[in-house]
Specification:
single chain; 250 residues; alpha/beta; Rossmann fold; seven-stranded mixed β-sheet; 7 strands; 14% strand; globular
């Protein structure tokens, strides 16, 4: 009987083919692992793995090329959009995406992302925003919230000294170039499903030959925020989502 039941069982969930079977290095509760999976599932569903090229920025996800069974390029800090532009223009039939954190994209790489969006480069950007420099010691990032305690703002971010948090998606949406921008989160099953749909849409538009697309992913950073994984999800919902509301921006 047991053999008959086993024979009738169907696999309904498993590792995406594009995601390498390897233990990830991310901290417990980090949103990068889940975001990797959503990108890999999208690439599998669209059947584009053979012509997809990823560009990794500097940050916690700098070695994400170890986890995707794809061609990957490791760019200089903040320069992923420029590298992706060169790859796409020289290989127009390829599908090119960047994978960047808020420090890489919104600080040293701000000029790169603005001009790539303004030119409506036919690339897709996966922008993971955890409001802190996670890899280098939890310093304040351009997206850190007012009052947020970091290693470089021990009394909380002060607008008089450090300015205000930058809403990158809304900023880029003022440009004529972007074709699609959406902000999502990976804090609940429902939001994960919405994040998957947005990432799928962004890649699908590139496959169709459309211009610049970007998905901003609000991600917990328990280690950088100094809290448990469960508390980090609460903090993301209670604080980050107020500053960075979810939904389609453009």
């Amino acid at each position: 009987m047991a053999q008959d039941v086993t024979a009738e069982m169907q696999k309904v969930f498993g590792r995406p083919a594009t995601l390498v079977d390897r233990t990830l290095h991310y901290c417990p509760g980090c949103g990068h692992s889940l975001t990797h999976r959503l990108v890999a599932e999208t690439i599998d569903e669209l059947g584009i793995a053979e012509r997809t090229i990823g560009v990794a920025g500097v940050g916690c996800a700098w070695n994400c090329y170890d986890y995707f069974d794809l061609d990957f390029v490791y760019s200089l800090h903040g320069r992923a959009p420029a590298v992706a532009t060169g790859l796409k223009r020289s290989n127009p039939d390829s599908i090119v995406f960047t994978y960047q954190g808020d420090g890489d994209l919104a600080a040293i790489g701000m000029a790169e992302i603005v001009h790539a969006a303004a030119r409506s480069e036919r690339i897709t950007v996966v922008f993971v925003n955890n409001a802190v420099y996670g890899m280098t010691g939890a310093q304040m990032a351009p997206t850190s919230l007012l009052g947020q305690v970091t290693t470089t703002s021990p009394y909380g971010r002060d607008a008089r000294q450090a300015g205000f948090p930058i809403r990158v998606s809304e900023f880029l949406a003022t440009l004529d170039g972007p074709r699609y921008i959406e902000r999502v989160a990976v804090d609940t099953p429902a939001n994960v499903r919405k994040a998957k749909k947005a990432i799928h849409q962004a890649f699908e538009l590139q496959v169709a030959g459309e211009g610049f697309t970007m998905v901003e992913v609000l991600s917990p950073c328990p280690e950088g925020w100094g809290m448990t994984p469960v508390k980090s999800l609460d903090w993301l919902r209670e604080n980050m989502m107020k500053q960075y509301p979810l939904g389609r921006v453009k």
